[in-house]
Amino acid sequence: MRVRGVVAALAAWSMIGCGGSGSPLASSGPSYALEIVGGLDQVAEATLAVAEPPAVRVLRDGEPVAGERIDFRIIDGDGNGTIVVTSGADGVARMPIWVLGPVLGPQRLLATLLSAPSITRNFVAQAVAPVAESALFHSRFAHPAADTVIAVSASSEPRQFSLLGPPGVRVISRSGAAVRGHPVQWSVVSGGAQILAADGVTDSLGAAGLRFVSFPTRAGDTVAIAATVPGVAAPNSHTWLFVVEAGQVARMVVLQGGDQVAASGTAVPIRPRIRLLDDYGNVVGAQALSFIVRTGGGTIGGVDSVWGGGEAPDTSFIAPEWVLGAPGPQVLRVRLGPLNIPWEFTSVEIRATATAP
Asked: What residues contact 1, with CB distance under 8 A and at least 6 apart?
């Protein structure tokens, strides 16, 4: 009954124009007429094209006429715009494509014979909501979603995911149209994270994603977060893996080589070893360090300052050889960053005492 009602409504709409005549042939005077030959009373998903583009045949005294210009214009529905088509040898002018607008319900297109603008034909199509068929899962780094582990820096602040490419999903219909307002369920599978904000339904593009997540602060912890889309064909869920990495350097710790005593002009017996930590005690590696002799007049690596230092297997940094200067207190400053910067980053001082030879 509902289908017959829709078809009847479409037929009534298509009769509007040319005085509302129900005849398939509309005429203005004895010479010219437009005959609908395709694309009448169709149903399609909103924002998609109808299956058969609208077409009319130009007739003069009942015979097809070539070279006549037909204006196809959207009247209701906000679909694709106006186009002018010239009739062929068979008198037919066919619109290349009619894409319906986003508004549900009847949408109308008017075909006008430009040489006789009073001669028109109406086409009506019913725009219906797309039905969810499948889910396309994606991540910030890959589309479709790959088995890639997403790194997050240790932080007590929630992690915000970009609107341009968060771990998320896009729900589409069988024809590929975006499905708006479809539910998406998010859950933490493992790892102790907390989802603070996520899209519970899809937007106008059919997309939903993570927004804010509070992750643990211990480096090496792994978190699994899943999205499930009910009511679509499998696969209807996906799990993303996140690994917590150390954050920015917050402090330096001297593991060995502090407060040594050596004769003036000789190297300390144990080369200083430094470890870098973030705010949560996680070890930070792969950093540039500067070593600067501040007191005593000794050398580090043969000069008074050097940028470098070897990274040890346990993710600590070993200073170059430190030769003490004149007898008395000695200070070696280790700081984050290269030598030629005008400001001070995180640093630590290592002390020693030089004795008379």
From this structure: none
Question: Domain 132-245 is of which CATH architecture?
Answer: Sandwich (2.60)
Distance of CA 303 to the CA centre of its chain: 50
Helices (H), the chain: 2-14
| Cα first-last separation, the chain | 109
Going from N- to C-terminal start, the domains of the chain cover: 2-128, 132-245, 251-355
Q: Which CATH number among 3.40.50.720, 3.40.50.1240, 2.60.40.10, 2.10.109.10 corresponds to the domain 2-128?
A: 2.60.40.10
298: Cβ–Cβ under 8 A, 6 or more apart, which residues? 322, 323, 324, 325, 330, 354
Using pLDDT thresholds of 50, 70 and 90, give the confidence band for residue 156: very high
**pLDDT, averaged across the chain:** 88
Helix (H, G, I), strand (E, B) or coil at 12: helix
As a CATH number, domain 251-355 is: 2.60.40.10
Domains 132-245 and 251-355 agree in fold: yes
pLDDT digits (tens, 9 = 90+) for 24-59: 455 445 599 999 999 999 999 988 899 999 999 999
> At CA 69, angle to CA 24 and CA 55, rounded to 5?
40
Q: How far is CA 225 from the centre of its chain?
A: 17
What is residue 11's three-state secondary structure?
A: helix
Alpha-carbon dihedral of residues 99, 103, 107, 111, nearest 10 degrees?
-50
- Quick: pLDDT tens for 259-302: 999 999 999 999 999 999 999 999 998 888 999 999 999 999 99
Return the bridge partners of 66, or none: none
3-class DSSP state of 304: coil
pLDDT number for residue 6? 42
Phi and psi, residue 155, nearest 5°: -165, 145
